[in-house]
Specification:
Elements (H helix, E strand, L loop, with lengths): L5 E5 L5 H18 L9 H13 L3 E8 L2 E13 L8 E11 L8 H16 L3 E3 L7 H9 L15
Parallel strand pairs: 4-5
Antiparallel strand pairs: 1-2, 2-3, 3-4
Helix pairs in contact: 1-2
Length: 161
Amino acid sequence: MLEEVVHIRRAAPSDAAVIAALNLFVHEPHLQAMPDDYRPYDQAAAAAYFADAIANKSHMVWLAEIQTRPVGFIEAELRTRANNPFTSPLIIVEVQQLAVATDARRVGAGRALMCAVENECSALGASEVRLQHRAFNDGAHRFYGALGYETYSVSMRKPLL
């Protein structure tokens, strides 16, 4: 598969079920690592979620294909913050989800999907791309770091139950 060319295109409403199936590649490791935070996967509910995201003007969803086979997707959202007494106004694009099929990793699909998001920023007037990933996900941390992303915020928690 290393010789294959990755094609990126905007997702269409008819892609929602395919994206829901691809989402399993990211959901299952999260469910295994954090079963109290993540629900067992409901593919029909996920497809409905992605259909809504594709139709939502503040969301952007792209699909990665090798030949005609869908191998990954990314969902991002345009976020704005008005000027207030504490913070400056802000226009960003926030990556909500990125998934690449296990057998299609390390061929450039994830990188190409991230590039699609970054390229959209200037057209939207966004100054940066932001994203979050779980602390257990070392692979995601290395991947985003290799693309030039840096830590700018740290979230902490203390379970009380």
